Amino acid sequence: MTIPAGVAESTERLAGCIRMHIVVFTHLQGTTHLMTAMENHPIRYVDPVFRPPSEAESLILPVTDGCSWNKCTFCEMYTAPQKKFRARDESEVMEMIERCGEFYGSGVRRIFLADGDALMLPTHRLARILQAIARFMPSVERVSSYCLARNLRRKSVGELTDLREAGLQMAYLGAESGDDAVLKKANKGETFESTRAALDKLAKAGIKRSVMILNGLGGDRYSNQHADNSARLVNATQPEYLATLVVSFPNGAQRFRSAFPEFEPLDRIGLFREMYRFIEGLELGDTVFRSDHASNWLVLKGTLGADKSRMLGQLDQAINRPATAPLRPDWARGL
């Protein structure tokens, strides 16, 4: 059985949310049957669909489309016209949840609320969504979402606690950097203090936090302060999970350079040196660390601080003896 390349690519992005989707699609023969299955699917996706690497086994449930900020110059995830920010109609979301319960039965254990900005929704509306998930998919053990720091300014610790008790266990917050100069250059719309306040608020509510830092975001000019202040932010907040990705521009860096004209990207060794400085500056008690995104040349995994020395050794090898290090070849990296 062969699916045309264009359809297969679109299906892969749509069904990258959960393996069960792929099973539904790839067991069908021909484009007509494939499209019929997509039309009958309980969830309406707006392509392209994004989720964190650790949500590969999760059902992706869109409650918003796009990102309400969508001004970060390094990010092109939601710049396509069809991804303009909007909240999904509540009736549509509730229907999707009910149909997913019928469609998947007890096969769903994790749900990721998409797109990039689910916590933009009012607390009472999110609570109803979480209650519906619990009702129609009682097998779900974890619900998570991306989170913008700015959106938590409108929510109290009490409101976030209510959401956690209703089922929201984890929030992925793209801090990108702890350095105010780098954040300004990237038009992130946040500062060290605003990011720290958001992470502290989530912690007080008992919601687990996964923080993302972008390796290379400050370029050559700001590399050291990007590493140092990012470590300072992570030390101050002690998140449960921490991840790093390499900044990349698959559609070109013109948008990023418009606000950061002096940006000079780090080469591979420069990225490793920045990572070494960042990890060396971390003082963490029990944070799960992952640097295994497809954009990274060197895969690092462990718990910080227990595995800090080992990771620094791996980075030292990549910097000083790259021929002996287990680096990804360029062709194996995905942006």
State the order of secondary-structure elements, H for helix, E for strand.
HHHEEEHEHEHEHHEHEHHEEH
Mean pLDDT: 88
CATH class of the largest domain: Alpha Beta
Q: Helical region count?
A: 12
Principal-axes shape call: globular
Structural class: alpha/beta
Q: Residue share in helices?
A: 40-55%
Radius of gyration: 20 Å
Largest sheet: 8 strands, mixed
Using the coordinates shown, work out and report the CATH topology of the largest domain.
Transcription Regulator spoIIAA
- How far the N terminus sits from the C terminus, by CA atoms, comes to 29 Å
Tally of individual domains: 3
How many strands appear in the DSSP assignment? 10
Strand content: 15-25%
Short description:
By secondary structure, the protein is of the alpha/beta class. It has helices spanning 5-15, 19-26, 30-40, 90-104, 123-136, 157-166, 180-185, 192-205, 219-237, 254-259, 268-280, 308-320; strands at 59-62, 64-65, 86-87, 110-114, 142-147, 168-176, 208-215, 241-246, 287-291, 300-304. The strands form two sheets. An eight-stranded mixed beta sheet has the order 1-4-5-6-7-8-9-10. The protein has a two-stranded antiparallel sheet with strand order 2-3.
Account of the protein in words:
The chain is of the alpha/beta class. The protein has 3 domains: 1-41, no CATH class; 50-147, Transcription Regulator spoIIAA (2-Layer Sandwich); 174-335, Transcription Regulator spoIIAA, CATH 3.30.750. The chain contains 12 helices and 10 strands. It has helices at 5-15, 19-26, 30-40, 90-104, 123-136, 157-166, 180-185, 192-205, 219-237, 254-259, 268-280, 308-320, and strands spanning 59-62, 64-65, 86-87, 110-114, 142-147, 168-176, 208-215, 241-246, 287-291, 300-304. The strands form 2 sheets. The chain has an 8-stranded mixed β-sheet with strand order 1-4-5-6-7-8-9-10. The chain has a two-stranded antiparallel sheet with strand order 2-3. The longest helix is centred in the C-terminal third of the chain and has 19 residues, at 219-237.
